[in-house]
Amino acid sequence: MGIVEEAHNVKILGSGEQTVVLAHGFGTDQSVWKHLVPHLIDEYRVVLFDNMGAGTTNPDYFDFERYSSLEGYAYDVIAILEEFQIRSCIFVGHSVSAMVGAIASIARPDLFTKIVTVSASPRYLNDSEYYGGFEREELDQLFEAVKTNYKSWCSGFAPLVVGGDMDSVAIQEFSRTLFNMRPDIALSVIQIIFLSDLRHLLPHVSVPFHIIQSMKDLAVPVVVSEYLSQNLGSESIVEVMSTEGHLPQLSSPDVVIPVLLRHIRHDIAL
Q1: Which positions ≥6 away from 238 have C-beta within 8 Å?
Q2: CA–CA dist 46, 170 (Å, integer)
């Protein structure tokens, strides 16, 4: 087993000619794709991995300097593709991994045939001409809450982000994976995500981009998906689903899985 494979808990399932790479967002791990994977493995070679810092990875491998920007995660994606000699893939990125995929595709466009995103945002902070959903003061309060009492913060954050019924399995699942992160790593990662501004990179994306979004998402307003589509340098398509929450593939799989499969299987002219 190679270092990259071990560090990221890489799993390869199925044996199709095309490869689909599934990349998870903050506070989750590869298990967030559990409803999608069974629908892919008969048709595709599926690559699952954990982002460094996820509760399932060894915290000793987390390099705070390397992961002080999203480029570190993008280099990890490229390293995984290279280690497994994947010459091209359909990259499915949730939340922060959507932008990680975009960065990786700018560096190595040859490795990506298209990027399918769920709950993607290039910037979470509002400014005078852009609405990302958050003011700086709100984010500072969030960071302080993470720092002060991580367990308590997890309990409050999970239901807000997932949405829906407080007792849902999806909320329990997200709470579990969020709580599994080491608190200092979680704080560092969430600060990098919420304070990043990747808008300047969008025109450099040359790979077709499929933007899938919940109608109601606490973290990513619908206008962000329109902004993404209008500013990418590549062909793009937006589909807003009648779902609620930032992890719809976990909370509303009956709605989301057919949508994801359609975007994975078909090109932009849906």
Answers
A1: 211, 213, 225, 226, 228, 229
A2: 23
Q: Report the interhelical angle of 150-162 vs 169-179 (nearest 10°).
A: 140
Task: Tell me how far CA of residue 38 lies from CA of 65, 103, 213, 234, in angstroms.
Answer: 36, 28, 22, 30
- The arithmetic mean of pLDDT across residues 77-85, rounded, is 97
Structural domains in the chain, CATH included, are 3-122+198-265 (3.40.50.1820)
E strands along 200-267, which residues?
Answer: 209-216, 236-244
- The 3-class secondary structure across 50-99, one letter per residue, is CCCCCCCCCHHHCCCCHHHCCHHHHHHHHHHHHHCCCCCEEEEEECHHHH
Q: How far apart are CA 175 and CA 192, in angstroms?
A: 21
- Terminal-to-terminal C-alpha distance of the chain: 40
Alpha-carbon torsion (139, 107, 34, 57), positive or negative: negative
Report the catalytic residues.
95, 217, 246
Tokens representing residue 86 in the block: 């994947």
User: pLDDT per residue over 47-62, tens digit each?
Assistant: 999 999 999 999 999 9
> What is the phi/psi pair of residue 250, to 5°?
-100, -40
Does this model's pTM top 0.85? yes
